[in-house]
Every structure is written in structure tokens, then in C-alpha cells.
Design goal:
A hairpin with a 2-residue loop joins β2 and β3 (about 95-100). The longest helix is centred in the C-terminal third of the chain and has 32 residues, at about 100-135. The N and C termini lie far apart (about 65 Å). A 3-stranded antiparallel sheet has the order 1-3-2. By secondary structure, it is an alpha+beta fold. It has helices at about 20-45, 50-60, 65-80, 100-135, and strands at about 45, 85-90, 95-100. It is flat and about 55 Å long. α1 packs antiparallel against α4 and α2 (about 50-60) packs across α3 (about 65-80).
């Protein structure tokens, strides 16, 4: 006869530290990675390493995607028809070059519109916070 199973110990999940700038920076960067990959591919076809460097340059270092971030996104984009890829042999190594499709260009345009709305709301919120520091609404 087998022994009764021990109950699993429930480990409480620790809440994120919302007062940490690194929490918010990480969340923002994660959200922006897909957008900026579309952004740099809007300029020209590129391979993964070039995409990472172009995103970093375009964002002045704010968003620096790693290979672990870029390739899963590119795979999703390819499966969704937002990019196509072509494999070529460069110096004896296979290299995939990604090209934005018309659907990818549409997605980029929609993304720009959405981020512009968010940006406007953030600018307005920044003004509200500035006023709060001067005895405004949020004190």
C-alpha cells in the first residue's frame, strides 16, 4: 500500500516592487521591443544582430534587445505574416535576413498610432504630477 501524498507547499508569490524604477523600465522595454523591431525593419531588411543594434541606436540605448528577445519575436512575426525571411550563406555561416511585409507595415502604422495616444496621455500625466509637486491635485 502506498503512503498518502504530502500536500504541496504553497509558496506565496512576491508582489512586484512598484516603487522600483527598474520594474517600470523592464515593463516598458518589454512592451516596446516588438514595436521597435517593426520600426527598424520599416527602414530596410536586416538580420537579427543588425536589428538589435538598430533598435539600440534608434532608442538611444533605452531599448537594447538581446538575441533571446529578438528571435522569438521574429519567429512570431514570421508565423503571423508580418515579416518574411530569407536564408543566405555569409562567410560560411547561414544568416537569416528579415523583411517587413505589407501586413507588417500596417502593424507598424497601428503601433505608431497606439503609442502616440499613450505618449499624449503620459505627457498630460507628467504635467499633472508636476502640478502635484506645486500643491496641485495629487497632494
Amino acid at each position: 500500500m502506498s503512503k498518502p501524498a504530502k500536500p504541496l507547499e504553497v509558496v506565496p508569490r512576491q508582489a512586484p516592487e512598484y516603487t522600483s524604477r527598474s520594474y517600470w523600465s523592464g515593463t516598458i522595454k518589454m512592451s516596446l521591443s516588438k514595436f521597435f523591431i517593426l520600426r527598424v525593419l520599416h527602414d530596410r531588411p536586416m538580420h537579427g544582430y543588425d536589428i538589435a543594434r538598430a533598435v539600440e541606436l534608434t532608442t538611444n540605448g533605452c531599448c537594447s534587445p538581446t538575441e533571446g528577445t529578438i528571435y522569438p519575436v521574429l519567429r512570431d512575426f514570421e508565423e503571423g505574416g508580418y515579416v518574411t525571411s530569407e536564408t543566405e550563406l555569409v562567410c560560411g555561416r547561414q544568416r537569416k535576413t528579415y523583411t517587413l511585409t505589407d501586413k507588417g507595415r500596417d502593424a507598424f502604422r497601428v503601433g505608431v498610432e497606439a503609442w502616440m495616444e499613450v505618449t499624449a496621455a503620459l505627457v498630460e500625466t507628467g504635467t499633472l504630477v508636476e502640478r502635484a509637486g506645486k500643491g496641485g491635485c495629487c497632494t
